[in-house]
# Entry
Amino acid sequence: MSTTDRLTGRLNNDAVLIVGVVLALYALFVVFGVLIGLDADGIVSTLRRLTFLTAVYALLALALNLQWGYTGLFNIGVAGFMAVGAYTMAMLTAPVDPGAGGVPGLGLPLWVGIVGGMVAAGLVGGLTALPALRLRADYLAIVTLALSEIIRLTYNSTTFQRFSVAGAELGTGGASGIPGPVNPVSTVYYTDPASPASPPTALGGAIFDFFGGFGLENTTVIGWTYTLVLVVFVGLFYFLLTRVGNSPFGRVLKAIREDELVASSLGKNTQWFKIKTFVLGCALMGLAGILWQGSQSLITPALFLPIVTFYVFVALIIGGSGSNTGSVIGGGLFAGLLFLGPTFVGRIVDASFDLGGAPSTFTDAAATLGSLDAAPLLAYSLDRVSTLRFVLLGIVLVYLMQRRPEGLLGYRKEPAAAVDLSRRDAPEGGGGPAATDGGERR
# Structure
């Protein structure tokens, strides 16, 4: 079987694997919706929320996989590069004269803002990489984390709430944030995209009427349309990074990951390769930030806390660094089981059992355990399910580090070799030498 045939077969199997995981998550959340009494629109909205979060975390995990999984660059400033992309896009597309209290911008078309956001995130990544990539491992991580916080606090500062560049008025809005552009999907459905109260277009009205027959609200239809756009971008990210990984450039990246000294001794300028990888990864993170937070009505610094970077790393660790398929699956499992799942489980328990009021402190909640009454502790836990999510994340990470540190698909990390080095059994009698094992499990 040729290398092309093997690659095609593997991609087909990966597509089936990804679709299977998504369908399993859909089935689980349909059951959740039925148990808590959601109607058809509520269940479909829940599935849209699940798909949206799966897509955005898959986008970010894929971008991070290029840096960490392919090249071994430990970048924990993902949220900062997302912020650069989203804020640059917003400032480029904001109206020149926003009115009283508004944040001015350059009034450029949306596509210019998107390209500008990606370029800005890539440039910031490149400027960071020049000095930072001289550092290794945890030192690079500290630099990128500090940069991420510097970026967030800069956007949060009142100094840059409104400022002037070459006579043009711009602003970040400070802690209050900057309004995002009108969701381009709305142009399909409304004659005035900025006002959902305006009459729908002919196409929009037909689509609303069709799905309204199934009990779906207009906002649900619009939300699903934008979510499907994100799913398309996940496919584009996957295709791009797969091509990069299989190219000569990608094989050098994997060689750097395995042993930078050996790659350098073969005449490769490893610093230049790492800088280009860092720039590309940061540009993709900026685009992911635009697609995620840029689609909101308001972009604020609070959307780019370091916890976002932590979530992306958890998604990548679950799927397995070095595997693009693992990045997508990890994004889905994180979004479904660890981010949304605890909230729905709490709602199911609350709807099924009368636990009474939740105690105000853990001491009060645990005091009744001596009398074998666990209801107050359970009520206390459900009332703080968002906090307990971090406990669950910690448990999952500890388990993975002990039992499966490579993640679900990390064993499929592609080797740096350009040819198949898997061992083949020689014919009886030694008719041919066995190929040298590349050390990577298939």
Observations:
- The beta strands are 163-165, 168-170, 178-179, 298-299.
- The radius of gyration is 24 Å.
- Residues 103 and 171 are 6 Å apart (CA to CA).
- Residues 426-442 have pLDDT under 50 and may be disordered.
